[in-house]
Amino acid sequence: MQFDNAPAPTLNLDSMPSALHVFNDAVEQFADRTAFQNFGVELTYKDLSNRANRVAAFLQKERGVKAGDKFAVMLPNTLQYPIFALALMRIGAVLVNVNPLYTPRELTHQLNDSGAVGIIVLANMAETVEACGNDISLKTVIVPELADAMPQPKRLLLNLAVKYLKKMVPAYSLPGHIKFTDVLGRSDAQFEMANPGHDDIIALQYTGGTTGVSKGAILTHRNVLSNMAQIDRVFDGKIQPGMVAIAPLPLYHVFAFVGHMMWLFKCGAKSVLITNPRDMPTFMGILEKNPCDIFIGLNTLFVGLLKQERFRALDFSNLFLTVSGGMALTRSTAEEWESLTGCSICEGYGLTETSPVVSVNPPEGIQLGTIGTPLADTEVKILDEDGSELPVGGVGELAVRGPQVMRGYWQRDEATADVMTADGFFKTGDMAVALEDGYYKIVDRKKDMILVSGFNVYPNEVEDVLASHPRVTESAVVGVPNEEQGESVKAYLVADGELSVEELDAWCRERLTAYKVPKAFEFRDELPKTNVGKVLRRALR
Fold first, then answer.
1. Class of CATH domain 449-540
2. Which of 116, 156, 467, 482 has a 20 to 30 A CA-CA distance from 225?
3. pTM (two decimals)
4. Which of 106, 22, 105, 119 is nearest to 69 (CA)?
5. Which residues, 6 or more positions from 537, have their beta carbon under 8 angstroms from its beta carbon?
6. Could you give the residue ranges of the DSSP H alpha helices within 147-275?
């Protein structure tokens, strides 16, 4: 929808009818280059295309999957993911990304809410689908094993090891399911190629549910195409075919889906898929064998890597671009990363509902502690409680308007209306401030703000101070009820070595106004996190 007071667009999407057309062009242009790598196995653009065609033919001819049908993909970062995602795109089906760690309750909600006609689920998580029982109705269930996209005998050996030695595949019973290898083994690769347009849906991308019921953001081809073009504008000419990008963030998350599955694929880069970034020994081995040009991550991951001696010994001479998103990047982490690798981190900002990128620090103008400047054709304003725009320096809710903003929430018109203004701005729920130079800074989630005796305390600010302590590895700050003050500040921490409450209190008092200093400190072995590494303040509350 266009609004009368919106500026004229500068992006030209006329040459890109859909994301599928961009994908098909990339396959033709980079046919013999490696598109994805996983467990040492490489898949060229041509290989990916050929395998996707067999899957597309099976889905369309044998299972009757039509353009517009919703199909759930419950896979970690394996080669099966891009194969299947491209197959869905080629027949015009809508990709419904599912977190493989979902419980049966969460999965049931997402399958029913989306109306998915089928699911592809890794064998390791197939018991979750079984546990949904009669609460779900699926016409097609496809079950791959971890190494199914690999050649023999590696496929057989790794699948056996995962199932019987590591016992990572719980028993399951899904009558009528089909093995992914059986689909790939079919010789028929003929199907009717879809011809989607800008307004067709490419994916239902569900929010994490940390702010209420998980909702499906409707992402159209225009949304994703726009964001790809916007990111291109920021990194114009810097991404060259054949560059190596490390992909530790899950492709089912919108950040990696658009970053690796779409944008870097379009650029001819090779994405090295990290199936389990928490398995640091394996992760280190992959990094040692794959000197990278591009690294896309987030603060929690950077902190974990910087603690690894093997990581600190790597050759970073090729690394020229590190991008951070998904959560706030702490200054101490950014500075240590740059000191070690020689590469500054470009922190960006985005949401599921914005496909996802809204703003980014341009490589030539990084300002730590900010989310950079808005992307092309993206308008940002700061709103007060009444919805009026605040001037520079005023703290309020960040609102966004641009071609990357979702169409709305799937089958939730009321929820959509709650987050959209009359003139088409999406209210992010994040508290932010506009700076004099056009950069923006997030001060916190609106709902996470702590009110101490009438004063606003933003957890990110306190967490940044805590993170700057040399022995604090992770921290999270929440508000807890306080009879005298309304709320008081409590900090949860993971420490590397001995650390006293007295020392922390003194550290904070040197750096924060008194009302912002935590009244209580609690040490934990680890903090609860989402699948992409965001600390769950809600769980701590």
1. alpha beta
2. 116
3. 0.90
4. 119
5. 445, 448, 459, 476, 477, 478
6. 154-160, 180-184, 221-234, 254-256, 265-266
